[in-house]
Design goal:
The chain is mostly beta strands. Helices cover about 10% and strands about 30% of the residues. It has helices at about 5-10, 165-175, 190, and strands at about 20-25, 30-40, 45-55, 60, 70, 75-85, 95, 120, 150, 160-165, 180-185. The two termini are about 15 Å apart.
Length: about 190
């Protein structure tokens, strides 16, 4: 059993998922989290290293809307990757594109450049099997989208989850579509439900 996950959250994880990235926020309104990649070994779940992570400026929500500056709580598949940098050897389909270039500053004045060097699309309000840059929003544009795991810029995000560059690279190399990877994300209290 994966620690910190209650019966409701465990029920959301597909039965065929053999890789689970658990992103746990400190509390509902916090933008600091931890991330752990678990792999099912056949006899149980084995945890990888614990990585510091950031999430949205205003924390977490179970009713995400565009511009609310909260990360959506839930369990989402991880099916596509990409980035400004060349594919480091990802097994997920990888879209190397200049479309991942970003500039400007974040909420705390930190530079955003390099944030999208490596990206894994979180399948919230998107069409799996497409580039993370695809703008199709099955639930409608007002429900937000473009929720990614991406490189940390030392500040909170608009809705994504960010990890240090080396940890994003490690995650990209570890995720295997044959293992049906998902992300379980939310504040600790919500995930315990």
């Amino acid at each position: 059993m994966i620690p910190g996950l209650g019966p409701r959250t465990r029920a959301w994880i597909p039965g065929d998922a053999r890789q689970v990235v658990v992103v746990t926020g400190r509390d509902r309104n916090a933008n600091h989290s931890t991330a752990v990649l678990y792999r099912h070994t056949g006899t149980g779940w084995e945890a990888g290293p614990v990585w510091p992570a950031r999430n949205a400026l205003r924390g977490w929500t179970d009713d995400h809307w565009a511009g609310d500056l909260r990360s959506p709580i839930g369990v989402y598949s991880l099916s596509d990757a990409g980035g400004l940098l060349p594919d480091p050897g990802a097994r997920l389909p990888y879209d190397r594109s200049d479309g991942f270039a970003v500039s400007g500053t974040g909420f705390e004045g930190e530079p955003l450049e390099g944030s999208f060097d490596y990206v894994v699309a979180i399948d919230y309000n998107r069409t799996p099997g497409t580039s993370p840059l695809d703008l199709t929003r099955p639930l409608g544009a007002d429900r937000g989208g473009g929720i990614w795991l991406h490189v940390d810029h030392d500040g909170p995000t608009q809705g994504c989850v960010s990890l240090k560059k080396q940890h994003m690279r490690d995650l990209l190399l570890a995720l295997d579509p044959a293992l049906r990877p998902v992300v379980v994300m939310g504040d600790a209290a919500s995930l315990r439900e």
